[in-house]
Design goal:
The protein is 66% helix and 1% strand. The chain is mainly alpha-helical. Helix 3 packs antiparallel against helix 5, helix 12 packs across helix 15 and helix 12 crosses helix 16.
């Protein structure tokens, strides 16, 4: 049994029982971060803050929401918005945070791609991040259905119907997911359970996993430089702080993260109080009606690019479904599609730089045309952009292999 001495204070009392000082040392005061990183490395902390806002606001909304097709719409748009004191605030916080979190996820994701943060020992970090992205996507879709407005209902009908394209088990799988042959009360109850119980638990587990995997290879840096963290940490502890290439996570790095979070939250609360409607589709303020199909069905903005890939193959629903599946899973394989051993920012990798910005441009086109009706020239632009998206990932191994050969000759 451990020897317990008279505590010199509350922290010492905790330390003897929970080793809090050692925990803080390992996780914060002696967890070393490279100096040469910019504010974009703070996006992970911003995501944690946004998830906390979603979690807390979701709990308040849960107190008054009714997961019933006859009551859901009114519980959101009348009870919460008009009868509950500050109910409108909690709903606006939840809706804006749901959109903002995807904006930051995309920034975080493409910063990692730009700086090659998925390479050389960081593959598991990348996989954990992409699993988080997929789980957040499922969480967002399940939440989008809960207000039971027109777009909620029909988006659920379209997305659940996609599973019908899976060979052999597809039709039965659709019925199992919906709990009925059509989108109904059973479907709403299922997605309510996913949104408030199962998926948040999975997300919290994946966040812990993501941070755990980040602890070992350490955080990357702007130059892709290989840093001897132990050697540089000794310099810092010896007092050579200017010469050292690292700083402790707390208080040096986290204080900068907190500053970035504060700046971000100014914009977040501005949207919450003055432009909350940007996160809400006007059609979704109409109650769900299975007999009245909207003229044009589309998902939230953060799903538009993948939706356009699905819709781009307008001449074949099977090809569209295959392309949709590839588009939503292809990022997971970035560490293996990039064949180059070079770990450096994109601006130091000329061919990769072209590939990166071509991908960003194509995703913007897919997002813009995903919200437009798929008629006339729009359909053909969507098809070309969908082919381009798949083609860019097909070309990546060849582009990076050429870069690898050049790097081999240079060395």
């Amino acid at each position: 049994m451990a020897q317990i001495k008279k505590a010199e204070g509350f922290i010492d009392w905790l330390d003897q029982r929970l080793a809090v000082k050692k925990f803080m040392q390992v996780m914060m005061t002696e967890y070393w971060i490279p100096k040469n990183i910019n504010f974009l490395w703070a996006m992970g902390v911003v995501l944690i803050v946004l998830f906390a806002i979603l979690f807390v606001s979701g709990i308040f909304l849960l107190m008054y929401y009714k997961p019933d097709v006859k009551l859901a719409f009114d519980s959101v748009n009348y009870t919460i918005m008009q009868e509950v004191k500050y109910g409108w605030l909690w709903r606006h916080l939840h809706a804006v945070a749901a959109s903002a979190i995807f904006l930051v996820i995309y920034i975080h994701m493409f910063v990692a791609i730009y700086y090659g943060s998925y390479k050389q020992g960081r593959e598991v970090i990348w996989i954990g991040g992409m699993l988080l992205f997929m789980t957040f996507s499922a969480e967002a879709f399940s939440g989008y259905m809960l207000p039971w407005g027109q777009m909620s209902y029909w988006a659920a009908a379209v997305i659940t119907n996609l599973f019908g394209g899976i060979p052999v088990i597809g039709p039965e799988l659709v019925v199992w997911i919906r709990g009925n042959f059509v989108v109904s009360d059973a479907t709403l109850t299922r997605f309510f359970m996913l949104h408030v119980v199962l998926l948040p638990v999975v997300i919290m587990a994946l966040i812990a996993f993501h941070f755990y995997t980040l602890r070992f290879p350490h955080v990357g840096n702007e130059l892709g430089e290989e840093i001897d963290f132990d050697k540089e940490a000794e310099k810092y502890k010896a007092g050579n702080k200017k010469e050292s290439k690292v700083i402790p996570f707390w208080p040096m790095f986290l204080s900068k993260d907190i500053f970035v979070v504060c700046v971000f939250m100014v914009g977040f609360f501005y949207l919450t109080f003055f432009h909350f409607n940007f996160a809400m589709d006007p059609i979704n303020f109409e109650p769900a009606d299975s007999m009245k199909t909207p003229l044009h069905i589309y998902p939230e903005w953060y799903f538009l690019w993948s939706y356009e890939v699905l819709r781009g193959f307008f001449f074949s629903s099977d090809l569209g479904l295959i392309a949709f599946g590839i588009a939503n899973g292809i990022f997971l394989f970035m560490p293996w599609l990039d064949r180059s051993p070079v770990v450096a920012p994109a601006h130091k990798r000329p061919m990769f730089m072209i590939w990166f910005w071509a991908l960003i441009a194509d995703l913007i086109v897919l997002t813009v045309y995903g919200k437009l009706p798929p008629t006339g020239v729009n359909a053909y632009i969507g098809f070309v952009a969908s082919i381009a998206f798949l083609g860019l990932f097909a070309a990546l191994p060849f582009i990076t292999s050429i870069e690898a050969k050049k790097a081999g000759r240079a060395s």
